[in-house]
Amino acid sequence: MQRFCLWATLWLLLACPALWSGADPDLTRAEEAAHTFMTAVQHKNLDDLQACVDVPWFHDGKVIIHDKKDLAREFDHLFQKRMGPANSMRFQLIKTVRYAAVVEKVDPEERKLAEQVITPRDFLCLVQIQHAETQERETVAVFIRQRDGQTKIVGLKN
């Protein structure tokens, strides 16, 4: 019986890396949300994008958007005027951290805006974007809020 328990325990540890890696399920959900959001942006899919975002929205460190219709208009404008064709960019999630880990490094004016949409327990995800046409790279911060079992993207900073 002890041999069976040992093998069962080893199998569980191998089959479920989260059990031994100390993986934070909130962090995992935050990264999944960031990936879903960036995929919707990459494909210029407004419906998928609206499913993973929420308001209030931190809009590039300049303003807070409170209305979902206004946010949809901003993304539609981005897709129509400022981005190349769908799939013309690639992205890579670089690092996801709790806002508490970086709050002191955030510009005080931007911090006032950021704290209208996230708390220290929420997340920021750094994403590197490469534009296919120009090969230009940029890094953006995606703001990720977790409330009542839901993970939503609530901001973007270029």
Description:
This protein has 158 residues and is of the alpha+beta class. The protein is 42% helix and 30% strand. It contains six helices and six strands, in the order ααααββαβαβββ. It has helices at residues 2-15, 17-21, 25-42, 46-52, 68-82, 108-114, and strands at residues 53-59, 63-65, 89-98, 123-131, 137-147, 150-157. It has a six-stranded mixed beta sheet with strand order 2-1-6-5-4-3. Strand 1 and strand 2 form a beta hairpin. It is globular and about 35 Å long. Residues 1-21 have low confidence and may be disordered.
SSE arrangement:
Elements: H1 2-15, H2 17-21, H3 25-42, H4 46-52, E1 53-59, E2 63-65, H5 68-82, E3 89-98, H6 108-114, E4 123-131, E5 137-147, E6 150-157
Parallel strand pairs: 1-6
Antiparallel strand pairs: 1-2, 3-4, 4-5, 5-6
Helix pairs in contact: 3-4
